[in-house]
Amino acid sequence: MTSVVRTFTRPNGKAYGPYTIEVDLEEKRAKGRAWYRANREHAKAAARAWVKAHPERAEATKQAYYLAHQEEIRERSRLWSKENREQSNASARAWRRANPDKTAASARRGRQNQPVLYLLRIARARAKLKGLAFDIAAADLAIPEVCPLLGIRIDPFTEVEDFHPSLDRLDNTKGYVKGNVFVVSYRANLLKNNATADELRKLADGIDRLMEANK
Questions:
Q1: Are 17 and 6 within 8 A, CB to CB?
Q2: Element containing residue 14 per DSSP (H, E)
């Protein structure tokens, strides 16, 4: 039994108490769960109506609950995603299609806040899609200040995509494996599509230097 302090207010507004009462919390919770199971739809409808009528209080309650239980919530989410991989991936794809602006903003935050992990995530997805080997980790990557192929700056914070970091492979017949990957500018990875003669010469010279250094 647990001692609980209660104050009672009559419909006329007159308050009585406080009173101390003894409550069996486990029994009370069990009754609450049993009632919810028996009246699930009614409870959900009542909850939706309350949230609609009190949006600010509902959001504050939601945030407070999340902050108090975020590790538990994240662990449940990870376990569910692991056990329901296909459904989780399908839901994520559908959400990204329905929310392109939020998806772009999330990608931008990932590139800026954790650029190495961002590159790894993209490379892992690409390797899986193309059936390529993948055995690299964050410790295998370093983002230079200057692109080793073109000599231009690498900046994950700029809005100019050419200067973003990009993961490339020395030998395209191999996968994303140790010794076969390096970080270049996004521009260097696009040169095969729209390169100028001067850029191609710089690219060829840079690849020669890297191949020689990795023999």
A1: yes
A2: none
pTM across the whole model: 0.56
- The number of distinct structural domains making up the chain is 1
Task: Note whether residue 98 is domain-resident.
Answer: no
- The answer to whether 167 and 183 are in contact (CB under 8 A) is yes
Asked, for residue 119, whether it belongs to a domain, the answer is yes
Q: Which residue has the tokens 């609980």?
A: 4
101-122 exposure pattern, b = at least 16 Cβ within 10 A, e = fewer:
eeeeeeeeebbeeebbebbbeb
CATH number of the domain that residue 180 is part of: 3.30.40.220
* DSSP one-letter string for 81-123: HHHTHHHHHHHHHHHHHH-HHHHHHHHHHHHHH-HHHHHHHHH
Residue 145 lies in a domain: yes
Which residues of the chain register pLDDT less than 70? Answer: 1, 4-6, 8, 11, 13, 16-17, 193-194
Domain that holds residue 181: 114-213
Which token pair is 166? 């990009």
